[in-house]
Design goal:
With 498 residues, the protein is of the alpha/beta class. The chain has two domains: 2-327, Glycosidases (TIM Barrel, Alpha-Beta Barrel), CATH 3.20.20.80; 360-497, no CATH class. 33% of the residues lie in helices and 11% in strands. The chain has helices at residues 2-11, 37-46, 59-64, 81-85, 88-100, 117-120, 128-141, 175-188, 198-204, 211-214, 237-251, 279-294, 369-380, 402-416, 471-476, 479-493, and strands spanning 23-27, 51-54, 71-76, 108-113, 149-151, 153-155, 159-160, 169-170, 192-195, 225-226, 233-234, 259-264, 309-311, 360-363, 430-433. The protein has a nine-stranded parallel beta sheet with strand order 5-4-3-2-1-13-12-9-6. It has a two-stranded antiparallel sheet with strand order 7-8. Helix 3 (59-64) links the parallel strand 2 (51-54) and strand 3. It is found in: Cell membrane. It is a lipid-anchor; GPI-anchor. GO terms for molecular function: glucan endo-1,3-beta-D-glucosidase activity. InterPro entries: GH, Glyco_hydro_17, Glyco_hydro_17_plant, X8.
Length: 498
Amino acid sequence: MATLLLFFLLAVSVVSADEDAFIGVNIGTDLSDMPSPTQVVALLKAQSIRHIRLYDADRALLLALANTGIQVTVSVPNEQLLGIGQSNATAANWVARNVIAHVPATNITAIAVGSEVLTALPNAAPVLVSALKFIHSALVASNLDSQIKVSTPHSSSIILDSFPPSQAFFNRSWDPVMVPLLKFLQSTGSYLMLNVYPYYDYMQSNGVIPLDYALFRPLPPNKEAVDANTLLHYTNVFDAVVDAAYFAMSYANVTNVPIVVTESGWPSKGDTSEPDATLENANTYNSNLIRHVLNNTGTPKHPGIAVSTYIYELYNEDLRPSSVSEKNWGLFDANGLPVYILHLTGAGTVLANDTTNQTFCVAKSGSDSKMLQAALDWACGPGKVDCSPLLQGQSCYDPNTVVAHATYAFNAYFQHMAKSSGTCDFKGVATITTTDPSHGSCRFPGSAGKNGTLINGTSLAPSSNSTSSGCLSLYFGGGGSFTNSVIMGVLLFSVVLL
């Protein structure tokens, strides 16, 4: 078995181990208030995003990207694929208009021909390889083929029997397309583009795949999935799918084509049928994915080998049809505010989300007042927040509303907990913002205008059983209601301590 494993590891010289992986971002445009190209580029620069993928070749955005150095993958939309795949001249015209017109000022490094064609547009599959070859020929004619790679993104669903990965193979009904496609990628030094969505794998597994396994959360050794043929241990769905694709290629006698993951992510909101589409899970998945990729962890089959990945996606696309989750894969709203703040300590500067480190936790608009009150009680009690500024006559008493007071208490707890995962949720009635909620003489913990010595952004209440902060007596009333409030708060909001 050791000899077999060594063979697998040596036989596939995919990408040199000293080539660092990168994190990129997909940019969709199905927004009712799509930012201007200059606004998009400004956000990319502020977030140190150096790799992007477009779903078309939008001229205005490509012009705005000129002289930024940002590496761009442009795309041939599916609706243009049939024409390009049947005409060398049409392909050459497309390259001239959408690529040659923009390089070298705009750093176009790849062309994605179609998107998930085999599963989304199977009637175009017969011309897919021709389309790639025609596009590539146009690049060769312009001496751009060495700097611009040509490929096509695939859904991971074309891989059958994906676990154990060593037994995975491509759907053989697509052999007339996949075999010449892989040979083309091999001969041109390109890579297999693969869309990997552990969220959907988890959702479709009917409980077989644990949520932690999908989210890259640490697993005890006895919970890791083991490939019985190679004895490789898999701690997350992402690696298992990528390795399944490597093994599937090897069964097609292609052993030196690298993989770039062109889409991966997790939705931050869903309907009642998608209970795990949450801000916290989206944050956990994307934060862990970014760390995993940028640490050059590789996969069990190819440890240390780059698996560069594009996150889906930059913006929430509110115009996308279908489910609620389809509209909520973005890292940012259309106004450029982060949907959530990624937990990226030690993962470099890319996608820091918060370029000023000025992020605050506030009460979510439209939240139930009873839920807000319970959360406020918890923060000022068991949460040990110093709520004395909320007492009558103090700096943050006005406006005297549950929303305003809860916002202060939520943020104080959030700052004290160093903005760590799960500390701005409060059972769904809190959210993160980059807008400082301070007002007048009321300075919120974490504000750049806050004076005095801070302990992780705020101070604790004097003690958990003291009313000297004023918050306990103000919000809990007598001893009986205090005890009930504490119990209710612990039951409702213990999640923030996890």
